Amino acid sequence: MHWAVLSDYWPAILHGLSVTIQITIVAALGALCIGVLIGCLHQTRSYALRRVIDAYVELIRNVPAIVKVFFLYFVLGWEGMESAIVGLAIHQSAYICDAVDAGFRSIPKEQSEAAWALGHSRSEVFIHVLLPQTWAVSMPSITNQLIEVLKNSSIVMLIGVQELTFQAQQIESDTFRGFEAATAVTAIYVTLAFGIAWLAHRFEQRMSRSK
Question: What is the CATH number of domain 3-210?
Fold first, then answer.
């Protein structure tokens, strides 16, 4: 093992880390916004809207993330970073929608009925009774999906985005020290994943204290 070889490549690794963090944050926020929105819209009474959302979720879940990124990059001609962020956001939004929808289904109908009996409107019941509970129930699943955004960010190296995995491949190509490069990058990915889980846990704790 020659770990010292990595010292010459720390600037490249840090650059890859910066790109990975940028992609993860923006794509995760996009996936969260889209997923929560369509998950909430799926609770409406409109049969047609629910079927459209079901079709969207099934389509997105059955098409690999790399295919989405390739379509945006090679077919639509978008830039690499744009293709990476939008492709990952769209891909993970379907899974977040499923998590939100499952959270709504877990809440007993009696709670809505009791709120209506007290004179609250449907919008008030949805915003103040159902949504907070759904968010609390769905948070662990949503956290897993945000970590998936981080892990899936590695595929964007295939369109030339110089993120962490790209830099590991470049180090291996230059030095033939692929094990050392892969080990260092893997440790960084694990640290980032634990960081996302820790932040989500702190957010859950803050929500619990605010009730």
Answer: 1.10.3720.10
Q: Do residues 102 and 138 touch, judged by C-beta distance below 8 A?
A: yes
130 — phi, psi (to 5°)? -80, -50
Helix runs in 118-177, H state only: 122-125, 131-152, 164-175
Give the pLDDT confidence score for residue 45 in this predicted structure.
85
Q: What is the pTM of this model?
A: 0.90
SS3 for the chain, per residue?
CCHHHHHHHHHHHHHHHHHHHHHHHHHHHHHHHHHHHHHHHCCCCCHHHHHHHHHHHHHHHCCCHHHHHHHHHHHCCCCHHHHHHHHHHHHHHHHHHHHHHHHHHCCCHHHHHHHHHCCCCHHHHHHHHHHHHHHHHHHHHHHHHHHHHHHHHHHHHHHCCCCHHHHHHHHHHHHCCHHHHHHHHHHHHHHHHHHHHHHHHHHHHHHHHHC
pLDDT block averages, 10 residues each, the chain of length 211: 80 95 97 95 91 96 96 96 97 96 87 75 79 86 96 95 94 88 94 95 77 57
Name 73's Cβ contacts closer than 8 Å, sequence gap at least 6. 80, 83, 159
Say if CB 157 and CB 166 are below 8 A apart.
yes
